[in-house]
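re: ur question from earlier - yeah i can do the single chain one, its not a big deal. heres the input i used so u can compare w yours
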Amino acid sequence: WRGQLLNDDFVFQPSITASYKGFSFNAWGNMGLTDYNRGLGYDSGEFTEFDFTLSYSGKFNPDGKLGYTVGVIHYQFPSSFLDTTEIFWGLTYDTFLNPTVTLYHDIDEAGGGIYANFAVSHTVEKIIKVSDNISADLVLGASVGWGNTEYNEWYWGAQSADSRLNDLAFKAALPFALPGNWTVTPSVSFITLVDGNIRNSDMYSTSSDYFIAGVSISKSF
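and the output i got, formated as tokens:
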């Protein structure tokens, strides 16, 4: 998450989203499937985090390409008192590489911490076609994140407390569209920490470069 290695083992992350006329509410959870976080008070099979997000998305012009999203995220940690809340706003432009910039502002525990993310993505449609009802796109993405002094002090420690670039991430996903509005998406990501002080911070791991693989299964109604 934003370059922070919170679990270096298998996890299960259920999520549900309800949307209506631009409004969306999402509930997300993270369950460790091993004892990786036992030192933090979590056994295998226990949820380590719940996130709740309320957002609204729209366009500045109904026929235009410039879109926006505003919202709030509450992060809840069952075995910790360090629950926190962020408000966020983002802009996206419907053009080649779909550039998106999102700003997250912590209004709780991180005391004014700001994290900014710039992302691009590209989709190659129906790169695999099994039948008329089963096909897969190739989705490629990249992003870079930056944190201000308050954000880096809270999440990375005092030695990283200046405004710095945090993480650089690359992702490839292959969402398979299946009958019945089901989608199965294998994906692989590479994340590297950018700034030297961030890389030298052992707040989460002695490693600064990670590969992450996963499979998601989703259904829309």
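The first strand starts at residue 11 and ends at 12. not sure if urs matches, ping me
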